[in-house]
Write a structure and sequence with these properties.
heterodimer; A: 166 residues; alpha+beta; Immunoglobulin-like; 43% strand; B: 521 residues; alpha/beta; four-stranded parallel beta sheet; 18 helices; elongated
Chain lengths: 166, 521
């Protein structure tokens, strides 16, 4: 093998190494703009049942097997929830969260990222999880200072009183 | 499609020619892409096993353990980590070039569909293994990948609760999720080995590693790259911040900017659609397949040469069915046969000197029989004018031998150069059909039918049956292993060969060939 051939092989190997090495970490990718923060609203919550419970009539109870004669008839289906996120008085997100499951009796889920500019903002979170037609069952208003690149996780726990900043 | 393939094939052949200058045809890396892929896979596999020993698989300590390996145990940890990354990256590079090259050379249709189609899941597995590996470092890049991947997966209606919720806040992430990722990162490469085995089921004598020269050069290159440009981490992951500027590994992570640009749904549609397109490429457009090789039991003595030479495992030996006193007979699987004719070239009964016009042989191609070959040799010889007369044997996949030389040249094309039984060279010279024979095939180790050039070289060199008889004057025989884009070089070599022939004394005709019985005794 002559020197020219070895030198050429060296060039090819070096070229391949540069190609592999360069694209292994370059060019840089700007995933998220500067001076921007993120609100992540994500929770899993079971809304109230659609329609209230009512007592079974004696005729209905008689038709049931003895071990299934529960006095109250409660529907399985849950109501769809309404979620609203308002930032500085403007609606940033508003969406209906349907219950999951074939019988529409499962919990509803949401996972949403809302970008905001860095700085102080008033964030209002609202959730309706009942059959009411106006207003909300839960509401939380927060004055928050967002740093650039911050991610604010917002969860919802009914047992903790509603929206939770984690 | 044909135009695109032709354009790509031409470009690749020019590139291959460039590599020939440095590596020679035999060690040309573009001829060994699959084997190089294997080498890179094993580099990643072995370095991965090594790194696993030092990796702390908890969310809290994963990053610190990788940093310790990278910086505190610089050589045995840092270089191994870099080898792991660059070996994996080079595997993707090989995959891309291998895919384009096989497509351009149309080595995906007909009987070859199986090898092509079983390669598609490998692409997915390579990417799953690579992406899950980046996750384990648990730096900001890992955080970005974890969140982007789970958000992308959540688009599919298969998860009850969004799995991206696992990355909502530091408290929501536990070690079990990490354990799952480690399991994926280890299980998928093992699965790849199994799929690779399936991928090569219809490939005879697969090349599992490149030549020693190429392997050493490649390893030196990888180690050099690891030393000069060691792989490092981003800042540690923090789920209360959003990673902004990232040093993406574009070999693996190119899909993420696509997801962000077009959304998760279109990204899924694009990826699955592209996979389907790749899967169905072997039938776009449908190929009119040449008829598979046919065994003639009356002339098959079960010598196994066709089995040994078939590049596609299309022939097997089975117990004799015709009562003749041989243990076995050859059996062709038409689904695997690409009609390259190498089996006919290997058959000891493919002899041109028989007096019968039908010229029966043990195994033959219905569309390009050896009887037809002898007839074409005679016709081509009859058309030559002037001298010295040169019979040029070429193959359908190689350069166009019809466009070489002038009136003194008799071009004869066979499906693959190894489909030419050596006795036909003897026949052309001893029957005064030409003063010289010029054999043109694909580049060494770059044969369209994998082993055509190797087998032909070995037959002519007396290293493989059926050997070219010793009586054939070697000064009247020349070979040229060239690409389609190297017609100029082939023409020059042919002209030089013709000039040498002109300077030789007139050929002394050998004794009349011994009569060969019509059937194998």
């Amino acid at each position: 093998m002559n020197a020219v051939r070895i030198a050429l092989q060296g060039c090819f190997y070096a070229g391949f190494a540069v190609l592999i090495g360069y694209f292994a970490a370059s060019p840089s990718y700007r995933h998220f703009p500067e001076e921007t923060a993120d609100i992540k609203v994500s929770f899993s919550h079971g809304a109230q049942r659609k329609g209230g419970c009512r007592p079974r009539t004696p005729e209905e109870l008689a038709k049931l097997p003895p071990n299934m004669r529960a006095p109250l008839l409660c529907p399985r289906e849950r109501v769809p929830m309404l979620l609203e996120v308002e930032i500085d008085g403007r609606i940033a997100m508003r969406g209906v969260l349907p219950p999951t499951g074939l019988s529409r009796d499962g919990t509803a889920h949401v996972y949403r990222r809302i970008p905001v500019s860095a700085g102080t903002h008033t964030v209002t979170l609202r959730l309706r999880d009942s059959e009411r037609t106006d207003g909300f069952d839960y509401e939380k208003r927060l004055d928050l200072a967002f740093a650039a690149g911050q991610s604010l996780p917002v969860d919802f726990r009914a047992e903790w009183g509603g929206f939770v900043i984690r | 499609m044909i135009g695109l393939k032709s354009f790509l094939a031409r470009g690749i052949e020019w590139l291959e020619r460039l590599f020939d200058v440095a590596f020679g045809q035999r060690h040309n890396p573009l001829h060994h892409l699959g084997a190089l892929g294997f080498l890179f896979f094993w580099v990643a596999f072995v370095s991965g096993v090594y790194l696993y020993v030092g990796l702390d698989t908890s969310v809290a300590k994963a990053f610190a353990s990788v940093e310790t390996m990278t910086h505190s145990v610089w050589f045995f940890g840092g270089v191994m980590r870099s080898l792991h990354r660059y070996g994996s990256d080079a595997l993707v590079a090989m995959l891309i070039v291998h895919l384009i090259r096989e497509f351009a050379h149309d080595r995906l249709r007909g009987a070859r569909w199986f090898t092509w189609v079983t390669g598609i899941p490998l692409i997915w597995l390579i990417y799953i293994a690579g992406i899950s590996g980046y996750w384990l470092v648990w730096d900001q890049l890992a955080q970005y990948i974890a969140i982007a991947t789970t958000e992308w997966l959540d688009w599919l209606p298969i998860f009850g609760e969004p799995i991206a919720r696992n990355f909502l806040a530091p408290s929501s992430l536990d070690d079990r999720f990490f354990t799952l990722m480690i399991f994926i990162h280890i299980a998928v490469p093992i699965m790849m080995v199994f799929v690779l085995w399936i991928h090569l089921q219809r490939v005879a004598r697969p090349e599992y590693l490149p030549s020693r020269t190429l392997s050493i050069g490649t390893m030196v290159m990888l180690i050099g790259l690891s030393l000069v440009f060691p792989a490092t981490s981003h800042a540690p992951a923090d789920l209360l911040t959003v990673p902004r500027t990232l040093k993406l590994d574009w070999w693996y992570l190119v899909i993420y900017p696509v997801i962000e640009r077009f959304g998760p749904g279109p990204a899924w549609y694009g990826l699955v659609g592209f996979s389907f397109l790749l899967t169905f490429l072997p039938w776009l457009p449908p190929l009119k397949r040449a008829k598979a090789a046919v065994v003639d039991l009356a002339h098959c003595n079960g010598c196994r040469r066709c089995v040994a030479d078939c590049p596609y495992n299309a022939i097997s030996m089975v117990p004799r069915t015709d009562g003749r006193p041989f243990l076995e007979e050859a059996l062709v699987d038409p689904a695997l046969c690409v009609a390259c004719g190498i089996c006919a070239g290997a058959c000891p009964t493919s002899i041109a000197f028989r007096t019968t016009e039908t010229l029966p042989t043990g195994i033959d191609l219905p569309d390009a029989s050896i009887a037809d070959l002898r007839r074409r040799i005679r016709q081509a010889s009859a058309k030559t004018k002037g001298g010295p007369r040169v019979m040029v044997f070429g193959c359908t996949n190689g350069l166009e031998v019809e466009r070489l030389g002038g009136d003194n040249v008799a071009p004869v094309v066979v499906p693959c150069i190894a489909a030419l039984p050596p006795s036909f060279i003897d026949y052309a010279l001893s029957r005064d059909l030409a003063e010289g024979v010029f054999v043109v095939g694909c580049a060494e180790t770059g044969c369209a039918n994998r082993f055509g050039v190797d087998w032909m070289s070995d037959r002519l060199g007396g290293r493989r049956d059926p050997r070219l008889r010793a009586r054939v004057p070697r000064e009247r025989l020349a070979t040229c292993w060239a690409r389609r884009v190297e017609r100029g070089r082939a023409a020059e070599e042919l002209a030089a060969f013709a000039a040498r022939l002109g300077a030789l004394a007139p050929a002394v005709q050998p004794e009349p060939p011994k009569r060969v019985p019509e059937t194998v005794p």
